[in-house]
Amino acid sequence: MNRSAAITVCVMLALSGFSFAKANPDRMQVGRAIHVSAGEKVGDLTCFGCSIYVRGQANSDATAFGGRIVLEEGGSISGDATAFGGDIRVQAGSSVLGDATAFGGHILCDPPGRIAGDVTSFGGFTGFLIVIVLPLLFVAGIVALIVFLIRRNSGVAAPAYSGTASTRV
Question: Are 30 and 12 contacting, i.e. CB atoms less than 8 angstroms apart?
């Protein structure tokens, strides 16, 4: 393959990703709600400190940190719906084709609504503590153990502080 053919192939591959992204654009917001209107198709939805409202179609995952996910009538998420510190609400006539997981929140599904995958809820403040605080305590324990072992095996004692200042002449 000559050099110009290789460049052409690389350019075509790069541009094909852009054309796919235009068909299903991802959305990410911080502190401002995401609204997917009826008839609208999007890719991944990610929200930090805000909520996601889907009336259209999300062709991938929806994730909210510190907010909730609401699938309004006719809305669908093809992937997973995950809320950290918030609820997931699936209203009548809407669906989640993947898993629905709420850490520190609850999952509410109206009877005609549908969640095809697993439903996992670590509801309320206790669930949030279990999911967030326990792993942090575990990591802190490992760091403390490493520091202890390094100090014990280094053989170098830290200089003692006598409480008086000494001066050399």
Answer: no
Report if residue 45 sits inside a domain.
yes
CA count, 13 A, side-chain hemisphere, 117: 14
Residue 6 domain-assigned (yes or no): no
In a domain, 140, yes or no: no
pLDDT digits (tens, 9 = 90+) for 86-144: 899 999 999 999 999 998 888 999 988 999 999 988 776 666 666 677 788 899 999 99
Whether 149 maps to a domain, the answer reads no
Q: Which residues, at least 6 apart from 104, have a Cβ–Cβ distance to it below 8 Å?
A: 84, 85, 86, 122, 123, 124, 125, 127, 128, 131, 132
Task: With H, G, I as helix, E, B as strand and everything else as coil, classify residue 83.
Answer: strand
| Total tally of structural domains belonging to the chain | 1
Domain that holds residue 74: 24-126
DSSP 132: H
* 114 Cβ neighbours under 8 A, 6+ residues apart: 90, 94, 95, 96
Contact assessment for residue 132 and residue 112, using Cβ atoms and an 8 Å cutoff = no
Residues 6+ apart with CB under 8 A from 52: 33, 34, 36, 45, 62, 64, 67, 68, 69, 70
Question: Cα dihedral sign for 63, 60, 107, 123?
Answer: negative
| Residue 18 binned pLDDT confidence (cut-offs 50, 70, 90) | very low
